[in-house]
């Protein structure tokens, strides 16, 4: 069985590198006056192919968010002048979502900064991912033979009595 310290260390290192990248992007986004979810939504709109424009449904699905939450974010981005919401001329039931020129102008430097950060931290992130994957593969190749305990088996430790 591989050394548990090495497994935990590899996984923790990968998580730390990934969090550093996300935090750097989030910091840049905050400095530009946007929350991370708005930045992600702007990117989701921009990445839609021209022959399949963004809709509330496609955005909610791609972001793994509730449609109502996406609508709230879109309303805010529309008020800020970053996004347009228009009826589909071919199907009046559909609402198409697109970036305004202002939205494009705000998004471009944020994406540039995120890509620069990824270029600088990417090699370390990739190395830590490879190490973590090697440990994960070794772990899976040598499964433990005991049954996995349920979280409720340990609930009593946190409160002194059985929680369930």
How would you briefly describe this protein structure?
By secondary structure, the protein is mainly α.
Which keywords apply here?
164 residues, mainly alpha, Arc Repressor Mutant, subunit A, 3-stranded antiparallel β-sheet, 3 strands, elongated
3D architecture notes:
The structure is a single chain. With 164 residues, the protein is mainly alpha-helical. The chain has one domain: Arc Repressor Mutant, subunit A, CATH 1.10.10.10. Helices cover 65% and strands 7% of the residues. The protein is built from 6 helices and 3 strands; from the N terminus they run H-H-E-H-H-E-E-H-H. It has helices at residues 4-31, 36-46, 56-63, 67-79, 101-141, 155-159; strands at residues 54-55, 83-87, 95-99. Strands 1-3-2 form a 3-stranded antiparallel beta sheet. Helix 1 packs antiparallel against helix 5 (101-141) and helix 3 (56-63) packs across helix 4 (67-79). It starts with a helix and ends in a 5-residue tail after the last helix. The mean pLDDT is 88.
Individual helix count = 6
Along the chain, the helix and strand elements come as HHEHHEEHH
Task: Give the assembly state of these chains.
Answer: single chain
CATH architecture classification = Orthogonal Bundle
Shape: elongated
CATH class: Mainly Alpha
Helix content: 55-70%
CATH fold-level assignment: Arc Repressor Mutant, subunit A
Low-confidence blocks of residues: none
**Beta strands, count:** 3
Spatial extent as radius of gyration: 22 Å
CATH superfamily: Winged helix-like DNA-binding domain superfamily/Winged helix DNA-binding domain
What's the number of domains?
1
Strand count, sense and barrel status of the largest sheet are: 3 strands, antiparallel
Structural class: mainly alpha
SS strand fraction? 5-15%
Strand order of the largest sheet: 1-3-2
- Overall mean pLDDT stands at 88
Termini separation: 34 Å
